[in-house]
Amino acid sequence: MSVNELTAAAWKEKGQKQPIIIVVSDFSLHKSPDLYYIAFGYPEKELNTDIALITGGGNGLGRLLAERLGKMGTKVVIWDINKKGIAETVQIVEEAGGYCKGYVVDISKKEEVYKAADVIRDEVGDITLLINNAGVVSGLHLLDTPDHLIERSFNVNVMAHFWTTKAFLPKMIENDRGHIATIASLAGHVGISKLVDYCASKFAAVGFDEALRLELEVLGHTNIRTTCICPFFIQATGMFDDVNARWVPTLNPNDVADRVIAAIRKNEKLAVIPGFLKVLLSFKWTFPWGCVGGLLKRLVPDASPHGLPSSIAVPAVPLNSSSKSTAADIAALDAELSSVTLPAKPPSMLIQRTPSLGERVL
């Protein structure tokens, strides 16, 4: 007999009406210890024996995560397409007394991912903490977004998660130890105008995390954890610096980095940042679309106020046409960009649309 049944029987025997209480049964505690942790708090695990890989570690949130993990004694490996950014992150981590190695890897190419994974296993060791952090955004209305930018959003924001996970998960299973963190977005739960491709890719990333977690549990790999991080727009990452948002301020990247580390240490399944926005998710599934759509339009009137005007064509340079970009490719791209008349305020989004092609080789 469960705790619930015993409690009900005891009140019935007394001839009194059972009060409205929530009793967690023995079965629930055994099968879902998260219920216990929700009530009494999650224990924090140490990360000083882990080897962490952070994609997109050359700047922004990835760099802040590398810095924090390095100070905790974690061996840090970063992947990025920006060689200069990699060097700066490695220097920051090492100057703080941490261990960090960086590699130029285009995670949208599975061949590069698998090749780099083999190199890391030989030079550093088995990855025990994988943080899929790299992301890109276009910030244009759907019909103004070139096809190659839509493909890039999916290749970097979600397809790369498949390649990195397939590269490192087998060893995690073999060692019965591992953690995969997905840096998704609140835009992975709600739609936002000018972010159709971005939202769709982040919805996919959220689904990837949830389905992977369930599959690992079904297969009995309960010591392999997954965490999905869904922040609101973050300042100073080059992606949403100029976003026009109401009611909810854009997030300080240092606060987000601290929250990500805390979520990983506590083995949290989902971390919405800031936490009160979880109410928005329940609101979405409770109220009719007229209410939800109206709220979203007011919450984020313009996700890319300083992006390229729709009349300006973004150069259609194939980002994945070959494993190595030639000098002619780079010169042609520079020539096209130099002819573009930009708004008075330089759009930070432009950097995300046209990353350096010359650094896309392992």
UniProtKB/TrEMBL annotation:
Q: Which InterPro entries match?
A: NAD(P)-bd_dom_sf, SDR_fam
Q: Provide a GO CC annotation, any one.
A: lipid droplet
Point out the gene that encodes the protein. Dsec\GM23287
Q: Which GO terms describe its molecular function?
A: oxidoreductase activity, acting on the CH-OH group of donors, NAD or NADP as acceptor
Task: Identify the CDD domains for this entry.
Answer: 17beta-HSDXI-like_SDR_c (cd05339)
Organism the protein comes from? Drosophila sechellia (Fruit fly)
Q: Name one Pfam family in it.
A: adh_short
Name-wise, this protein is GM23287
Record-stated family:
Belongs to the short-chain dehydrogenases/reductases (SDR) family.
Q: Does Oxidoreductase count among this protein's keywords?
A: yes
Answer whether the UniProt record assigns the keyword Oxidoreductase to this protein: yes
- Give UniProt keywords alphabetically: NAD, Oxidoreductase
Q: Which PANTHER family match?
A: FI23927P1-RELATED (PTHR24322:SF748), PKSB (PTHR24322)
